[in-house]
Amino acid sequence: MSVTRTGESAAPGQADPRRWWGLVVIALAQLMVVLDATIVNIALPSAQRDLGMSDGNRQWVITAYTLAFGGLLLLGGRVADLVGRKRTFVIGLIGFAAASAFGGAATTPAMLFGARALQGVFAAVLAPSALSLLTTTFTDPRERGKAFGIYGALAGSGAAVGFIVGGVLTEYLNWRWCLYVNIPIAVIAVIGAFALLHDRPGHTGARLDVPGVVLGCGGLVALVYGFSEAQPRGWTDPLVLALFAAGVVLLAVFVWWQTRAPSPLLPLHIIRDRNRAGCFLTMMLAVIGMFGLFLFMTYYLQVILGYSPVKTGLAFLPMTAAIVIGSTQISARLLRHVGPRMLMVPGMLLASGGMVILTQMTVDSAYASEILPALILMGLGMGLTFMPVFSTATAGVAPQDSGVTSATVNTSQQVGGSIGTALLNTVATSTSASWITSHLTDPTRREQVVREGIVHGYTVAIWLAAGIMLLAGLVAGLMVTAKAPKHGTPADRPVPEPVA
Q1: Which of 100, 161, 286, 465 has its CA 20 to 30 A from that of 35?
Q2: Rounded mean pLDDT of 195-199?
Q3: In the chain, what are the domain boundaries?
Q4: Complete DSSP assignment for 19-81
Q5: Distance separating alpha carbons of residues 285 and 440, to the nearest angstrom
């Protein structure tokens, strides 16, 4: 049955004439999900003052979202496969808008943390259905390259766009509009989804893997919570070690359970594919470095250099432009002629090089000569990497597995973001504290020493991020062996479901 439908969907003569308008709707929803991971970053100082958040708790405004998002994405992907992608897409949009309204009206830190977690839950339903709809809508290799170029550009630049939008809203309205802005976007996307998107019915006979959800999400929460607690408690604290151990054990049991579950949350044949596994790992490592950069540069530009929220957002604009150019003008054109790793490896080398340049920043660095070149290199590197990751990871997947495969790509992205934010923030703050303690010999220089110590912590963490980017390039070079796609090759089309 699936073979016949796949063949029909791939037939050029039956391509939906409104598919590019459908891409606009999908892209709008994806942009909303991605930029929400960072749009509150610039608003965070204002929200912290308004709601009386502590310095230790403020990171949960970001982490509550990425953690719920990353932890539940596999479930969201499987739900999309079971009940239909269009239906879950619309449900995700409506729920995301409602959670955004709840967060915008928050009167306590706990209310905001809860709203951000709820946003993550609905994003976990929305994102895999969006990518899955894209995968099943564009089957022609040439069109697929263009569509994934646009999607990859949004995935890479959405976080940077979040800074710009967040800066404007925070400065000219207030931080609450960083959440309220999702409501009109979601309304437009829902109307567009009903008018333009098509989907086959889901596989309602299958069951959801509830033990898999508990084990997988529990393992991820334990790991990220462990990283976040390492800063105030120390890496050798019993609670931190227990969280890391619990995370590893839960994820190991999750993998074991997936080999025995009647309807596994993550069918292991999806990650046994060498190219797909390489793409997932490359994505996770790349985003660990990228989210760390966003966090540090936001505080560096605002706190150290004294930029306004809007000026901070605009400072990220060249990076956004570089991501879009790297993804749509370079990767999308070259992927038809070269293997994906020929783009991913240079991309990670460029991004790592940009990070190394940033390690030289000081308390009075000049933006144009010392910060801008690094951001452009980072943007080009991310653009070169993200587009082939999305395209390669979702190519050749059975229709009934497209949702969970799309979810796994997004999971690697969000887990990377959660770990990156917690790990690199911990490294930066603990290094800063040690440096300030050892250098604070003259009380009259306290303010200058604190500023220098904060920047020192950032540069140490950025060195670590640069190394993680290099590791991502190594993984891509060794694991992603797919060749350049050709017209009509099976690798570009969904394949029938395996018998086993």
Answers
A1: 465
A2: 76
A3: 18-198+263-487, 210-262
A4: HHHHHHHHHHHHHHHHHTTTHHHHHHHHHHHHHT--TTTTTHHHHHHHHHHHHHHHHHHHHHH
A5: 36
Give the per-residue pLDDT at 466. Answer: 94
The pLDDT value given to residue 452: 92
The superfamily (CATH) of domain 18-198+263-487 is MFS general substrate transporter like domains (1.20.1250.20)
Lowest mean pLDDT among 26-40, 169-183, 273-287, 484-498: 484-498
Question: Is-contact 34 26, C-beta < 8 A?
Answer: no
Distance separating alpha carbons of residues 394 and 406, to the nearest angstrom = 6
- Residue 159: half-sphere exposure toward Cβ, Cα within 13 Å: 25
Q: Tell the burial category of 379 from Cβ atoms under 10 Å away from its Cβ (0-12, 13-18, 19+).
A: buried
Q: Which of 415, 364, 409 has the alpha carbon at shortest distance from 386?
A: 409
Alpha helices in 304-401 (DSSP H): 309-315, 317-324, 332-334, 341-358, 372-394
- In the chain, how many H helices and how many E strands? 20, 0
Pick the more confident residue, 80 or 349: 349
Q: What are the distances in angstroms from CA 147 to CA 103, 154, 406, 414?
A: 32, 11, 15, 22
Which of 271, 25, 283 shows the shortest CA–CA distance to 130? 25
Kind and range of the H or E run holding 361: none
Stretch 42-53: mean pLDDT: 84
